[in-house]
Amino acid sequence: MNEPKRPADAPAGRPEIAAANEERYRLISSVATDYVFSSALTPEGQLVLQWVAGAFEQITGYAFDEYVARGGWRAAVHPDDLAQDDRDLEALRANRDLRSELRTLAKDGRVVWVEVSAHPVWDEKQNRLVGIYGAVKDVTRRKQAEAETRATYETLNAFIDSVPAFASFVDAEERYQFVNRYHENWFKDSRRHFIGRRLADVHRPSTYAVMRPYSQRALAGEFVRYEHEMTGRDGKYYCFDVQYIPRRASDGTVLGYFTLVFDVTERVLRDRQQLRAQRLESVGRLASGIAHDLNNILSPVLMGSDLLLETVRDPADRDLLELIKASSLRGAAILRQLLMFGRGEQEERDVLPLGPLIREMLKIIEETFPKNVSVRSRVAPELPSIRGNVTHLHQVLMNLCINARDAMPGGGRLTLDARVENVDETLAKTYAAAATGPHVVLTVEDTGGGIPAEILDKIFDPFFSTKPAGKGTGLGLSTVLGIVRSHRGFIRIDSRTGQGTRFRIYLPVCAEEEPEQAAAVPAIPPKGQGEGILVVDDEAAARRIARQILEKHAYRVFEAKNGEEALALYDRDPARIQLVITDLMMPGMDGAALLRHLRQTTPALKAIAMTGGLSPAEMAQAMEAESAEYLFKPFGADVLLETVRRVLHDG
Question: Quick check: 491 and 504 in contact, CB under 8 A?
Fold first, then answer.
């Protein structure tokens, strides 16, 4: 729009009226934030500004004549908005009202945003535009405020999008009105997928069932926080810290709530691992105490069986005694497993072929499992050996097979599989394996109901059990995990609800050849030569059986029930005692303290230390500098006699 000239502007009339009008115009102009104008269209097609009223000079910075002289409206339009001004003029030439916003340049160089409202003056006879009139309003402050608001909004959006959590706003109808980029990344869909949709339409039914009661509480005005455990679409376990913060209107009405959902899976798993370690430590302490007491009970049973076997000749009675002895040895083996599980105690291991172990397990399953459980075995030929403890690995297979049986109360198929698989660095790192290379993989698979995803990560926790009270201790799988890890192996589990469970035990292959087993020749217990032996134990039954065995083999035996009594007995006649056999864990003066006192007067005194609950390392630590042979309860008569002979004559 270009205005080359200005017509005469003083209205005719009485001077006092003109003066009053001028004063009113001046007052209006001083408070106005816009100005009105009228323009005419010349025959050449140019708009000519006829008059203005209002805040013209405040907005433009120019006097009227100065404004017209420098080119008028068209010269004042910001260069970047000239195309829009062309479009605005075309709208007026088409006899359409105009409302437009664009930038202009004031005299001092300021950018002034203006809102233009214009109406075309139309010549009906000539059917063309002959003029326009309208108003121009300064909207710079509003545009600045809008720009600031937009910048703040964009900053907040960028901040919310950078938050490593789900952030959203849910309205009173449980519809998403906003979600951040984390939603897009998690669901692999644009945020348009969420806006306007209900929670129930976005999330899986199982997930929404958990969310809904908390959502209703938030819509009632309550701040809500909870943890939600779930299995993701990728099949992995996740745990989320969920927070709902209600948003209220000025009258207190709840409009909806903001959500913040943080992925705390790593922290939860780390805390569970720490708790598991604490439980294992507690179990270790408990196991030590239990083992000490039970081994003291088993020692007389085992030694008594050996003592009776030397005199009993009736085959039926001997079979009974052999059964008692075997049960005692089995009980001792179980106690050693408990100690190993609780404290990581390492036991002697041999090069083992797994074929015989698997065949023995298959025989047990066929003889003892219900007939509605069919058994399938797939064992690779020429299966390599591993280095391990046969009792412990027997326990691993037994626990897994029993669990498989219990998972199929109505019957099913149990598969026992053994093959070789190479473990690469990726797999070893995933399962924190101690070794790479060839591994023997023992697989126990069932067709039962499977393990629910929400408890899959808990099954190795000590005392965790899905069985009814009295049907399980919760130590079976914990023991399995402890044994496998102590063999430098790892466990993989595949389980889906309704589709069964598969445990795969990875054990590193041993490159050593299996040693040839020499035929065992029962040793003849050596006789003594009247040596004096002091037996110190707080268990009367253990002292009594030990005395009978030793006296039967020509030793003189003295008994004491604790350290104080043993010290007093020895001091009466030290020369009559050549060997002290003492339990380490006794009330009052323990075995280590007793030996220290005795060797103050007889430094060369020979000794055997017994324990029912300490590991070899703990034994050595308890004895400190007090050298002695060790006997681990329970032990048989032949072990006692051989140890006594070796200490007296070879030590």
Answer: yes
